[in-house]
Amino acid sequence: MSGDEMNPAAVAQAVEDIQGDDRWMSQHTRFVQECKDAEPEVLFIGDSMVQLMQQYEIWRELFSPLHALNFGIGGDTTCNVLWRLQNGELDNIGPKVTVVWVGTNNHEHSAEQVAGGILAIAQLLTSRLPKTKVVVLGLLARGEWPNPLREKNVAVNSFLRSWLPRLGHTQFLDVGAGFVHSDETISTRDMFDFLHLTAAGYRAIAKPLIDLLLQILEGTPEEKRASLV
Amino acid sequence: MALSTPRLLVRFLGGRNLLYGGAPFPSEQTPGDSKTRNEETDKVMSSGDSNPAATPTPCVDIQGDGRWMSLHNHFVSNSKDKEPDVLFVGDSLVQLLHQFEVWRELFSPLHALNFGVGGDETQHVLWRLSNGELAHISPKVVVLWVGTHNHSHTAEQICGGIMAIVQLIKDKLPKAYTLVLGVLPRGKMPNPLRERNAQVNKLVKDAVSSLPHASLLNVDPGFVHSDGSISHQDLYDFLHLTPQGYQAVCQPLHAHLKGLLEKQAEN
Q: Domain named SGNH hydrolase-type esterase: which ranges (chain A) (predicted)?
């Protein structure tokens, strides 16, 4: 499916400025400029789930110290992220880890296509940044009650779980545990609009993510424990 | 793959399909002195018949997870056991405010409720307030912040939409004061949306000038620098506020609100 001309979710595409204030391109240009000045150890790329994280305290507490860059843009699909990565957002940087979180906005594509788009992003990253380890975050549940988008995101994750291990240097991390309660609802305490995370929601996903990042950055778990002593 | 324009428009509107009520909108007014405003035009613009921005319209769930209606239902049921003195209502700029420390610091102590929904345009807020969100509460002040997402409407129509909301609040909460916040500039560099938003603010300021129960507050602390640019440190995507941006906006807003609440208490 990935690299297949027939998968629209794996076709790089810029966002056209319809609204009239050119904000998407301005954000992309800023990221390209950041690549010239910064030497990130960790790169986050994706949609609003990535972008919003930087606005909460948790970014300063946990991710800035890892020398992380945040290239999230709200509303982005896999197509948009592919375009940005092919047009300067990987220039002159060599992060040890790249975290990819995108796919929930791909409304025109099937679950399989979305997974194929994410796979294409992972492939692009490992080929352009040979030293990087890619961590793909699973898509979260959304909506207050069970709905077709929850099922779709579960299906995307399922494809990713089986496809990603076949790529070298890439792994899948599911950070969605606990958001759907036993009555099948999602709480506004975790997702203030049943899609975007609150500070508490980000704290919940940060724990498994930071553990994995530290593990990768510092080598084995034994080395990590030794260095923290 | 080329996407057709209507689908791109839908994508930018957060995937919503907007139902337009009423007749096609009147042709553009000629630019000119807003002081010679036409009362008839004002009436037309804030009535639902000819202005889609002033026609109560719910969001249709295109994406498929029903989030807009879920939020609306939450606001209605949440309001049943609360007695807020202040109600914030509007779009993502209101909604996101609720997520940062500044809300707890400045507005929780004022007993404020937050009914912001990301992406909302004037006609969506109008629908929400007409359909239960004001039914169980009597705030002394309603802070209204909306208009920047009305992409298919003119400045005049957006003003009409805001004024329709002001009128609705007056009808449902006769003792409440409505504080309309000016729409902020957006985009990294000068662009037509900045002009449109500035024009909306000008028109609304004129329209509320004769009303004892409403006013417009300009909350832009000077986000546009001398070179015309806006910084991502204030508006992280050149539209939405960072926590630092909110502090700059909310400190004066908070002071103004306290003054209003004290005046309301005296009356």
A: 44-204
Angle at the Cα of A24 from the Cα atoms of A22 and A25, rounded to 5 degrees: 70
Look up the pTM and report it.
Answer: 0.88
User: How far apart, in Å, do the first and last CA atoms of chain B sit?
Assistant: 62
Contact B11, A17 (CB under 8 A): no
Residues A199, A196, B123, B195, CA torsion sign: positive
- Two tokens at B248? 């700059």
Give the count of Cβ contacts less than 8 A between chain A and B: 105
Which of B66, B71, B187 faces A145 most closely, judged by CB atoms? B66
Q: Collect all residues of chain A within an 8 Å Cβ-Cβ radius of residue B246.
A: none
d(CA B252, CA B259) in angstroms, rounded, equals 11
Tell me the per-residue pLDDT of B77-105, one tens digit each, with 9 for 90 and over.
989 999 999 999 999 999 999 999 999 99
What is d(CA B91, CA A199) in angstroms, rounded to the nearest whole number?
A: 19
Picking from B8, B22, B19, the residue whose alpha carbon sits closest to that of residue B61 is B19
Give the CA angle between residues B180, B186, B190 to the nearest 5°. Answer: 125
Among the partner residues A13, A108, A194, nearest to B65 by beta-carbon distance? A194
Q: Strand runs (DSSP E) across A14-84, as ranges? A: 42-46, 68-72
